[in-house]
């Protein structure tokens, strides 16, 4: 905990003078510095007492979709339908017992610290605590597992380090807008899905780009290393779905870096999850979502393969979190302002149904 305090003080000093989320480029620079110092260092937080977050508005995520058919894995199941039932198992609690036996009895969780309304350091929150939809979920998991929602040690994990952090044991789990897919299921285990979204294009409002289509010809497109967006871009470039002249060489460690490059004019478009893109459009009034979602994707809590007792426990938490209204309350607080259009609800406003293998 003490090792992290200088990082907090540095970030707070750098944020001095920022008001709201108008200076996204400055905020992104702060986040980048914070991550550089905080990477894989514990960041202990408490649930925010604030009723809201800084800034809202922006546009909702596109409701109509032209999503491609969902891809089944080699076992014939959809990737989001392959988690373990909350009930069942042999009664062993090996993984959970190890967590509870720690001298520092906290859950170690990899998160994002610069995704607005998902997991981020709010510059208007003097406490320096993390906030967002994913952060709320982590606190609920900690409460159910350890009896204390504050019993969490957060670690800032870049997009391309999520799987290595789990495999190495640096974290117990990653809760970081992480899509469940067949390739990742070979490396880590996932909970049941806790959020549904899809890929979408983000570009300047003045851009001639209209979506994930031929208007991307001769355009420079940014995506994050280790993301499903990059996987789709590479696959579609090879198959001809994406124009051959589209430039997809710009790949960054963290997804927010793409927004900064778009603002600086270094790229023409960003491809990322629509839920994240909606939050970024809310941060910067000069950018907007272009076209509908073009994939179906589901976020899950990622854990180490073989940690069956922990996986089942997280699925019990998700089941109860949805049933008792905790999920909906968190959505309303963090994501409703950016994803819904007035009274029209995004398809993401309903938690996805769980189907276990």
Kindly describe this structure:
By secondary structure, the protein is α/β, with parallel strands linked by helices. It contains twelve helices and 16 strands. Strand 3 (114-115) and strand 4 form a beta hairpin. The radius of gyration is 19 Å and the shape is globular. Residues 1-42, 44-58 and 62-67 have low confidence and may be disordered.
Main sheet characteristics: 6 strands, mixed
Tell me the strand percentage band. 15-25%
The parts where pLDDT drops under 50 for at least 5 residues are: 1-42, 44-58, 62-67
Distance between the termini: 39 Å
* Mean of residue pLDDT values: 85
Helix content: 25-40%
Radius of gyration from CA coordinates: 19 Å
Topology pattern, helix = H, strand = E? HHEHEEEEHEHEHEEEEHEHEHEEEHHH
Q: What's the arrangement of strands in the largest beta sheet?
A: 1-6-2-7-16-8
Q: In one word, what is the shape?
A: globular
Q: How many β-strand stretches?
A: 16
Q: Would you summarize the structure shown here?
A:
This protein has 357 residues and is of the alpha/beta class. The protein has twelve helices and 16 strands. A six-stranded mixed beta sheet has the order 1-6-2-7-16-8.
Write the layout of secondary structure elements.
Blueprint: H1 5-15, H2 24-38, E1 42-44, H3 94-100, E2 107-111, E3 114-115, E4 119-121, E5 130-131, H4 133-146, E6 152-156, H5 162-167, E7 173-174, H6 182-185, E8 189-190, E9 195-197, E10 199-204, E11 220-224, H7 228-239, E12 247-252, H8 256-263, E13 269-273, H9 274-283, E14 287-290, E15 297-299, E16 302-303, H10 308-323, H11 326-334, H12 336-339
Parallel strand pairs: 2-6, 2-7, 11-12, 11-13
Antiparallel strand pairs: 1-6, 3-4, 4-5, 7-16, 8-16, 9-15, 10-13, 10-14
């Amino acid at each position: 905990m003490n090792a992290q305090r200088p990082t907090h003080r540095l970030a707070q000093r750098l944020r001095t003078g920022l008001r709201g989320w108008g200076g996204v480029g400055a905020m992104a620079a702060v986040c980048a510095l914070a991550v550089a110092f905080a990477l894989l260092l514990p960041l202990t937080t408490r649930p925010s007492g604030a009723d809201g977050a800084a800034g809202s508005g922006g546009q909702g995520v596109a409701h109509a979709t032209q999503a491609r058919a969902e891809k089944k894995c080699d076992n014939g199941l959809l990737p989001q339908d392959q988690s373990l039932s909350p009930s069942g198992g042999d009664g062993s609690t090996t993984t959970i017992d190890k967590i509870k036996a720690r001298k520092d009895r906290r859950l170690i969780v990899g998160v994002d610290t610069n995704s607005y309304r998902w997991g981020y350091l709010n510059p208007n929150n003097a406490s320096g605590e993390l906030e967002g939809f994913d952060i709320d979920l982590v606190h609920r998991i900690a409460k159910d597992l350890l009896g204390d929602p504050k019993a969490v040690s957060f670690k800032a994990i870049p997009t391309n380090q999520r799987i290595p952090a789990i495999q190495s044991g640096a974290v117990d789990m990653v809760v970081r807008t992480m899509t469940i897919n067949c390739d990742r299921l070979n490396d880590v285990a996932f909970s049941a899905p806790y959020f549904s979204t899809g890929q979408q294009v983000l570009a300047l409002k003045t851009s001639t780009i209209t979506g994930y289509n031929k208007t991307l010809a001769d355009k420079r497109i940014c995506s994050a290393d280790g993301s499903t967006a990059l996987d789709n871009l590479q696959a579609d470039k090879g198959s001809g779905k994406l124009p051959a002249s589209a430039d997809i060489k710009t790949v960054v460690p963290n997804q927010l870096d793409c927004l900064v490059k778009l603002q600086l004019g270094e790229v023409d478009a960003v491809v990322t999850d629509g839920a994240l893109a909606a939050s970024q459009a809310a941060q910067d009034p000069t950018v907007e979502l272009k076209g509908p979602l073009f994939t179906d994707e589901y976020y899950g809590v990622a854990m180490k393969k073989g940690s069956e007792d922990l996986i089942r426990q997280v699925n019990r938490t998700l089941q109860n979190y949805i049933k008792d209204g905790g999920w909906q309350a968190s959505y309303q607080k963090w994501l409703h302002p950016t994803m819904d259009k007035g009274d029209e609800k995004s398809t993401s406003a309903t938690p996805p149904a769980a189907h276990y293998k």
